[in-house]
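User: Can you help me understand a structure? I only have the sequence.
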Amino acid sequence: MFTRSTPPSVGIPHSEPIAKSFSAILRVLLIPTVILLAIYCFHFSFYRTYFPYEDDPALLHASGGNATKWFTEGYSKYFVVYPEWNVPRTDFLRPGVNLIVRLNETFFGSHYFLYFASFFLAQLLICALIVCLAQRMGVKEQWLFFVGLLGAINPAFIGEGLYNLSFQYDIWSGLFAVAALYLILRQWYGLAVLSLTLAVFTKEPALYAPVAAAITVYLVHRRRLPAAIMLLPLLVWAWVWKFVFVGTPHGNYALQGNPGTLLIKGAIQGFMRWPTGVVDYHVVRKILFEHSIAAHLPDLFLLLINLFLWGLLLAVGVKFAKAALRASPLSEQDRLVLAVVIWLAGALSFGILVGYDSRFGGSIYPLEIVAFAAMIHSDRQRLTRLE
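Assistant: Let's start by predicting it. Here is the structure, written out as tokens:
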């Protein structure tokens, strides 16, 4: 049961009947379902005749053979399938991606349009999860339709993954991360650990999730042992990376150069790019050197939006911090908002450090949509203190 520091009848909104809540979610999910189906149908002629190209042969090669090499070899020989790139340069450990590819191959063979169908299904599941999360945080039904709509067309999905099988797995890692948050809030800790494990072993942008999960369980549910258990997937990933994964002595082609310089440069670029993830951070340098503000007004406008969103997130974080320092108990819905903010902070911090492109926002965008919907369109006063 949910652990409360106050009587359950005080400050806790009454839950809607399960049947009514479920029917509302089904109504809302009609919007993303229709949108995703329309996008899939629009591209179906391309999907029906799709043949692996660019990174696809490397991905299929890395996912073939004995599954043991997914953990020992990983992506270290990813590009050696190409004659022009015969030196291993990719130190990635992504057995979750290998598993998804293997399952697609097993069930669908060379019918690649069904590979894309599974990708669209993953996106629909993300929409369902964020709608459920937003509903639990008191977002009114009319605004849930916008949550589902934005989830279906977020930039992480509307990108290279629509046209290339090799760029679809940030959505899968995002699905597993957001699912873990939902399972934690339902206090289904065992399933949450499984989902976290799938997330971190699918793609590196989800490495924040176990830490966010541990903090969430401790702060929201006040459960120490389950909070510690949430770190297990990260510890297992680190152990596999250190003692099982062989990798390559040639390093990682995506991170060439001095680590300190890369970290500083990535942080500056990442701060300018996010939270929207669509800002061209080169625009600042162009303005400084070319002195041409008028030519870059759209980018400047997006940059101002980013600064506003950073300010809003900072303000929310300060309010929660003040409430914590005063030991002021929060309502249940505020605790749910706190959990989403914790996860969003983790996802964004990882994105900032490496200056991700928008397609890496598989969990960032869904969490942003839920967080901002809850902060703006909830049907109760934010940060309500329990009297």
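Now, to help you interpret it: The longest helix spans residues 297-325. DSSP finds 17 helices and no strands in the chain. Let me know which part you'd like to focus on.
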